[in-house]
Amino acid sequence: MTPSARAAAAIELVAALEEQCFAPEARRRPADAVASDFFRARRFIGGGDRRAVSEAAWGVVRQRLRLDWHLGRIGMVPTPRLLLLAQMLLVEGTARQAAEAVFDGSRYGPPVLDAAERRAAAALAGRALVDPAMSDSARLNLPGWALPALAARFGEALAREAAALEAEAPLDLRANLLRTDRGRAAAALAAEGIAATPTPFSPWGLRLPSRQPITGTAAYKDGLIEVQDEGSQLIALLADARPGMRVADYCAGAAGKTLAMAATMGNRGRITACDTSAARLEGAARRLRRAGVDNAERHLLAPGDRWAKRRAGSFDRVLVDAPCTGTGTWRRNPDARLRTRPEDLAELVAVQHDILAKAAELVRPGGRLIYATCSILPQENEQQMERFLARGPGFAPVPLEGLWRALVPGVPVPCAGPWLALSPAAQGTDGFFCAVLERAA
After folding, report:
1. 251 carries an active-site annotation
2. Which of 324, 374, 415, 434 is catalytic?
3. What φ, ψ does residue 40 adopt, rounded to 5°?
4. Nearest Cα to Cα of residue 13 among 125, 141, 110
5. Which residue from 280, 277, 377 is spatially nearest to 336, judged by alpha carbons?
6. SS3 174
7. 231 and 257 in contact (C-beta within 8 Å)?
8. Which of 153, 184, 186, 362 is exposed most, by the fewest CB atoms within 10 A?
9. 38, exposed or middle or buried, with CB in 10 Å at 0-12, 13-18, 19+?
10. How far is 191 from 38, CA to CA, in rounded Å?
C-alpha cells in the first residue's frame, strides 16, 4: 500500500472506532475487537500495511484527549480526517507539506484537504503536543471524571503516574511451576532467541522489554510459560493457595490466576473457576489443558444457581478478581480511558459490593477472602474494603507486610500500607489492588 492508501485505511479505522467505541450512542466495544473485525473484512491488507494502519489509528486513540483539545482550540470538530492529520503534525512531527501531501485524492488515498482542513493544518503545524494552556485532563491525558480520584490516590506523583500510563508496557510472563521453574523457562526462551529477565517481585515472573509473538514459541505451546502481568502474578501469590486446599476463583475470566494458583497447589486439592460467561470458561478450559492443570473444575454462575448456597463456608481460599474500570491497564488498553464513563464507575462499585457479599459466604471459618482489581481508583479499592469491613461480616485484614515476608522472604515488600497497591510508575506493573481478609475461626 502507498502512504496515502495507508492513511485512507487508518481514517476508516478511526471512524469505525469512533462509531462503535467512543461516540455517546456507541456500543462501546473494545477497540481491539473493532480493529480485528476491520482487518478481517479487508484481508487484502498485508501484515506490514496492517501494522502501519494500526499504529496510526492507535496513535490517535492514545492521544485523543490532547488532539481534541488542539482541534477545539482552533475551532474545528474532531473528524477522523482531522484527527489523523493532527496526529501526524503534533505527535509524529510530520512537516506540514508532507502531511498535506498524504491527502492526495488518488484512487486508494484520502480526498484532498478542503480549505478549512488546510487552515487547520497551518494552525497546528509546529505546535507542541502538550500546551501550557491545556486543561489538567488534556495535559495529563486522563479523562476529567477520573482526575479527582487519581489526584487523591497519587498526590504529587500524579504527573509521573500519568506519564507511565502512556508508556509502552513490557510483556510479562509467568513460569508454569507445574512444568518448569523460572530459570529453565528463561533458558527455553533463550534457545528460541528471546531474552527474558526476572521480574523484581514475582518469583515466577519473566519480563520482555516489549511485545513479541510469544504464542508461537515452543515454550508457550508446551505450557512452560503463560502471559501474565507481574501485578496479576502477585495477587495469585498473596492468595497463598496450598496443596490440598479447596479454592474458588470467583470471577475467573480466562483463568490466568486459576492457573497460577493451581501451580502453587501442585495440582493437589481442588480449585473451582467460576464466571458468568460460558465463552470465557471455555477459553479457560483450553489454557488449563495446555498448562497441565488437572485439579481444576469450571462452574458457570447463573441466576437462580444454588451452587454457592450448597458450598457456603467450605472454601479455604476465595479469590474475587472483581469486574472494574480497568484504569490500571490504560497503558495496554488506551481506548478504555475514552470508553469508560463516570456512570460505569458507579455501577461497578455496586456490582463489586454485591459480589464481595456473595463470595464471602463461601469462605470457611479461618479461611481467606482475597479481593483484587486492576483499578487505581480508591472507590473500587480502599473504599470498597472500608465499606465491606464496616458491615461487620466477621473478616479481618491480613496485613501485607507480614504476609509478604512469609511468602517471599528476602524480596522487598512492593509498597507500604495494609493492602497491595501497585502502579506502572511505582512498581513497573499494571495498576493492581489486592486485599487479603481472614474469616474469624
Report:
1. no
2. 374
3. -65, -35
4. 110
5. 377
6. strand
7. no
8. 184
9. buried
10. 36
Taking the model in full, what pTM does it have? 0.93
Q: 202 in the Ramachandran plot: left (φ > 0), alpha (ψ -120 to 50) or beta?
A: beta
- Grid cell locating 122: 497551518
Residues 6+ apart with CB under 8 A from 330: 165, 336, 337, 431
Q: How far apart are CA 399 and CA 420, in angstroms?
A: 9
Cβ atoms 225, 206 nearer than 8 A = yes
Question: According to the model, what pLDDT value does residue 294 have?
Answer: 92
What does the block give as the cell for 386? 472500608
Distance separating alpha carbons of residues 256 and 262, to the nearest angstrom = 10
| Rounded (10°) CA dihedral 406, 409, 411, 414 | 10
Residue found by looking up cell 472507590 in the block: 379
Write out the DSSP string of 137-155.
HHHHT--GGGHHHHHHHHG
Report the relative pairing of strands 433-439 and 296-300 from DSSP bridges: unpaired
**Cα 380–368–173 angle (5° rounding)?**
70
Report the alpha-carbon distance of residue 62 to residue 432 in Å, rounded.
Answer: 21
Residue 308: the pLDDT is 87
pLDDT score of 210: 80
The annotation status of 275 as a binding-site residue, yes or no, is: yes
Report which of 147, 192, 198 is spatially closest to residue 173, judged by C-alpha positions: 198
Structure confidence at residue 348 (pLDDT): 97
* Cα distances (Å, whole numbers) of residue 424 to 144, 339, 376: 20, 21, 10
Query: So what's the pLDDT on residue 302?
Result: 87
Q: Distance (Å, rounded) from C-alpha 162 to C-alpha 242?
A: 37
Listed as ranges, residues in the chain with pLDDT below 70 are none
Residue 209: what pLDDT? Answer: 83
DSSP string for 356-379: HHHHHTTEEEEEEEEEEES---GG
pLDDT at 194: 94
Q: How far apart are CA 174 and CA 264, in angstroms?
A: 12
Gap between the Cα atoms of 404 and 401, Å rounded: 5
